[in-house]
Amino acid sequence: MQAEIVTIGDEILIGQIVDTNSAYIATALNNIGIDVYQITSVQDERQHILESLHQASGRSQIVILTGGLGPTKDDITKQTFCDYFEDTLIENQAVVDKIHDLFETHVKRKPLPANLTQALVPTKATVLDNSFGTAPGMWMERDGTVFISLPGVPYEMKALMEEQVLPRLQKKYKRPFIYHRTLLTYGAGESQIAHRIEAWEEALPSYIKLAYLPSLGRVRLRLSAKGDNKQQVIDTVEAQINNLLPMLEDIFVGFEEEGSLAQTIGGILTDRGQSLSLAESCTGGRIALTFVSNAGSSLFFKGGVTPYATHMKVSLLGVSKEIIETHSVVSEAVAEQMALKVKKLFNTDYAISTTGNAGPSLGDSDAEVGIVYIGIASPAGVLVERHQFGKNREKVIQRTANKALELLRKEILKN
Amino acid sequence: MQAEIVTIGDEILIGQIVDTNSAYIATALNNIGIDVYQITSVQDERQHILESLHQASGRSQIVILTGGLGPTKDDITKQTFCDYFEDTLIENQAVVDKIHDLFETHVKRKPLPANLTQALVPTKATVLDNSFGTAPGMWMERDGTVFISLPGVPYEMKALMEEQVLPRLQKKYKRPFIYHRTLLTYGAGESQIAHRIEAWEEALPSYIKLAYLPSLGRVRLRLSAKGDNKQQVIDTVEAQINNLLPMLEDIFVGFEEEGSLAQTIGGILTDRGQSLSLAESCTGGRIALTFVSNAGSSLFFKGGVTPYATHMKVSLLGVSKEIIETHSVVSEAVAEQMALKVKKLFNTDYAISTTGNAGPSLGDSDAEVGIVYIGIASPAGVLVERHQFGKNREKVIQRTANKALELLRKEILKN
Q1: pLDDT, tens digit, for every residue of B363-404?
Q2: What residue numbers bound the domain in which A93 lies?
Q3: From the list B190, B211, B395, which residue is nearest A11 (CB)?
Q4: How many domains does chain B fold into?
């Protein structure tokens, strides 16, 4: 059994927004054992939407649409969806009540006529309650295919998936168990890894799929398998991973399913009752945000400083002015001082510092674009690494953050 | 004339990665007057790739594929692409030389056999040089359709688009001019805006398309038109915008094409020779990153502090301990002090502070999850707003950042 996702909206086709809804829906379906065969993004155009529904239903038993359900004139999904089933729209009283209630409670004014058109639904549709908005979800069945239309606003779509769609799909279909395990590695390229594990990969049974997912200084290795016997699927994959891990010992940092590297680090520090602070210059708040995005971060993350202007490195952190003048602000000596000073200032066990030139032009130092120094202060001392991360500003910031976490983890495990 | 994008990779279909390549390619094509009709994401599966190529070429004259060109066994795009044209692979000497060169210069070791398989290309393909990687792009033509295969690694794909694909498409096709203008508004919902501009929207000529793009506290309004006469297209859209703007005066903050709100703010501050600092508690480094991501930010952004632990608000920023004890750390009084203190510490003209509970559980204060105080210190004084931004941690962080920029802009324009 398989599903397809159809996302509707010109904003996707002109590249104005990135389609994040599909990744969320695909993950959610995968978690309950439903494969996604294809994702199709189409314009807000009647004939194109009708065709994509027709084609998707010819391939898959579940078709999930998102987008185009808003109250404004550019939103045509509902009428088109209705026409596809040769149905007509009628007002649904439960949705009318919901809209009045939402407006009274949150918006503090009466709904506009446009808001009330949200209560129109095809007569044959099962209405799916939207906890966070006025556009209901809709569920239709025809010739053995289920069609589900959801709003494109991500948090409304997510609530509808969790509260309405997934429970109904779980009830309706018998599904296999799908198991993914993703190894996070830092510090080696994909072909190096492929070469290293070649014999193991050759011997991998065909029902286990292996994928290499490289990005900015790290490679993720994903093993996937499915079957009706959950325990057997898990055991088979885990047995393969047990054979694989010794070959990756120096570059393996954890499993993605157990959280990102930031979560892994947070877990270790919290367990040990240790703490972390940051002095981020060229990364702005990138590393802080990586930690703060996870719940529970206040248990180990004490905060940081972003002394973006050079003189703030002196006045706020206490980096020596002479060292900056002698070595330049982008230097090993400055990264070392930043890490040590912020560690002391926040009284933490570990600290990360970054100083570099993310480009596109030379800054307060003569360091070429892409040069970054990363400092890691630990109870044992301080180390600094120099890297050249290229000419793209965003990439320099992200690669610096990735490398800093990789180095921090290594230091933590040494202590 | 229109194009389609086919992205290849199981990682997209299981939701492990978000497909950002398509948005980039769609924007790039749009900029040179090529519409994208459909984006299709398919699995690393031979038959499925062949079908999607067949279908796309039946609808569109340009088909751009990304992904599946890596050196590892899960990458099957090249062989499938070659089979689609009933062609065979031969070694391309220029690519072989390039691979050796890349390895000598950057990797400091000899390429592995797997790396050298990257030099195999279909005999009929025009090879497109990849500046940043070993997998070349490929250009094939058949029955009036151009097929272009690019690697999925974003920066390799982008360089190939800019250096090879776009110049060739511009040379090959006569294209209309496509014009988009996107108004950024903060503080009103999409149906409120639609109601307000109803008469204007009704009278909009059919060749200008209007789209509402709502997200977390802001709505973007996009006007699109295309035609052969560039100046006429621009003039028509701009005339409509001139009629529209007076209706949106209180919520309009700028045009997306002229940069994000952070860029707009940066531009004003830089022009005025004024500066900004940040004291971000609940937003971690989210706001700092918004500024630091743009080149030239060091001209106005002096840096910030993330006093995540409560006691750091006292020791680092100098917020009064009594005020925290009396009012709680998530309070108007603390937000006010944080903004004033960081402004003084960094000696800037403006400062933003955030303190709140992003959830999921109660933190160092009794403030319910989602409550955030945002402070804006300016040469004229300080203001603080209280908001309830819901229960989702990431959403609370992003909405706080959006609202803070909105408030800062208003304060800057008052002074």
Answers
A1: 666 778 899 999 999 999 999 999 998 888 888 898 899 999
A2: 2-172
A3: B211
A4: 3
